[in-house]
Amino acid sequence: MADRDQEIRKFQRVADKRQSAAEVLLHAELNLEAIYLAGYVVECSLKSVILKRTPRVGFDEMLRKLTKVGARGHDFDYLRGILTRKPVSCTIPNEIAELLSRVRTWETDLRYEVERVTDDVAKDFVDATDAIRIWAKQRN
Q1: CA-closest candidate to residue 35, choices 98, 134, 123
Q2: Regions of the chain short of the pLDDT cut 70
């Protein structure tokens, strides 16, 4: 049986660390790299809220749904679906839903890309992930 509080805190800490690292990369004008890392902020933030709102009885099963499902575990739509359905049943405010739609294009395959991303696009993405992270922390 997983330690519920420890698992929740782990996802929160990872989100915080990835946000800090993304901001450093953004400052160094490594824009695509900042976006890539910032995507994990959203993933871990959503997972922390899901786990916090999951009843203890179903916690281990939910943890498996988040961490043992391959690429789906990185998919924001998959995570959002879990977040809004029972047993989690979290209402996503309109402003957070809008931010989630702005970061929706993120995927782990960005690690193979080398395209140029403008400063404005990267900053907007990293700012959106930070707002999502802050919202998630307030739910925990």
Answers
A1: 123
A2: 140
Q: Domain containing 47 — which CATH number? A: 1.20.120.330
Strand residues in the chain grouped as ranges (E): none
What is the per-residue pLDDT for 139? 86
- Count the domains in the chain: 1
Chain-centroid distance, C-alpha 37 = 10
CA angle 46, 19, 51 (to 5 degrees): 20
Q: Are 8 and 119 in contact (CB under 8 A)?
A: no
Boundaries of domain holding 71:
4-139
Q: Is the pTM of this model over 0.90?
A: yes
DSSP one-letter string for 13-43 = HHHHHHHHHHHHHHHTT-HHHHHHHHHHHHH
In which region does residue 29 sit, left (phi positive, over 0), alpha (psi from -120 to 50) or beta (all else)?
left
